Amino acid sequence: MAFKVVLMLGVVFLAQQSLATGFDFTTSYARKALTLVEDYLPGHYNDFNPHPTSHGERAFCQTGEESCFSYDPDSGIGPQCWFKIDYPRNKCCDERNSFQSPIDIPVNQRTRHARNRLRYRRNHIKGELENNGIYPKFEPEDDNIRLYGVPGTHRSYIMDNVHFHFGPRGDERQTEHTIGGHNFDAEAHIVHHRSDFANVSEASVHKGGIAVVAILFSTEHGSKSPAFENIFRELGEVEDFEDEENVCFLENILIFIKRIFNLEEDGRCRSALIPTFPAPPSQQKVHRKCLLHTKDSRCGEHKDEIYLNPNELLSECAVYYNYDGSLTSPTCSEAVTWLVAAEPTRISKETLKALAAVESRFTGDKISDKGNLRPLQSLAGREVKKLRFPKRKHRYH
Ligand SMILES: [Zn+2]
């Protein structure tokens, strides 16, 4: 542990020295710092090895849940390198897989009728919006918001969060899923775990353990959803990202050094390990607050007390594409029953601007600089069903 602290102090010192000596003097300090960081990260430049080490430091932050990964293909920790992230059961880029997401959804199938309505039994929930530096994320306060009617099981699914994906500004592709090659303007994922599991993590090793409802947004088609509008209205409140958990601390040092000295990535994949510091007593208090998601938490921007009707998050047209796939970010667990709405929900251009302004966890970047879209994955012979669910009784306009 002491070694890590000394190492990090050394890196910071070298970086500061390189700054203090002037940009035009020499890059040797920066290169030393870079080498130190790279040497520290065991297995970084090893041969391809998608399997996690048995001992190991995992790419987790202090909460034990987050790892540092990027959507920047040039960063060495971009999507093509996610297999390097040292998670247990990391399924990213597992070449044997055939269940990865997102995909381009084929559209030539006939529509089948689902027996049960897809719905939540609750019509009012309260939650909070936060910026975790990967995407803006709404989390319900109540951990028992149940979705019924997910095909293939009689069990209900408990809502964990609603988060948003969008592409780099100006790029044609702005959604993770595409439908018949068609791209929309942003995508929401409503993530649930099956009610017989304690949480997403536990559910993520069981096929069908997770259900994600994907809603595609368009500035030209569909109706606005009051529930999404209630979330979008608060985006400005979570625009900033505060890196209190140091998830990408090491990466940010690398970026800092590289930017100053104009150093290029060499294109090789790195896993991004985060040293775990012993938290001094004062920080332990902060950490507890983070876990409780209190308003004063210093773990990033929060906006609490957002009220919405979860049924209004679901697609008004009630037709969904259903397939077996994976989470679209590490660990890419192949446990997901996907329900991708066939018709878009309306989004305003102002909301797209508000999404584009949200800061990423990489210092000085917006999420929209690189976007947060995983490249499309192979369908690999999977069947995608088109399901029409019985309509909801109440519709919004
Ligand atoms: Zn997602």
TrEMBL record:
Keywords: Signal. Belongs to the alpha-carbonic anhydrase family. Residues 1-22 form the signal peptide. This is Alpha-carbonic anhydrase domain-containing protein. SUPFAM superfamilies: Carbonic anhydrase. GO terms for cellular component: plasma membrane. The lineage of its organism: Eukaryota, Metazoa, Spiralia, Lophotrochozoa, Mollusca. InterPro entries: CA_dom (IPR001148), CA_dom_sf (IPR036398), Carbonic_anhydrase_a-class (IPR023561). Residues 67-388 form the Alpha-carbonic anhydrase domain. PANTHER family: CARBONIC ANHYDRASE (PTHR18952:SF278). The keyword RNA-binding does not apply. Pfam families: Carb_anhydrase. GO terms for molecular function: carbonate dehydratase activity; zinc ion binding. It comes from Patella caerulea.
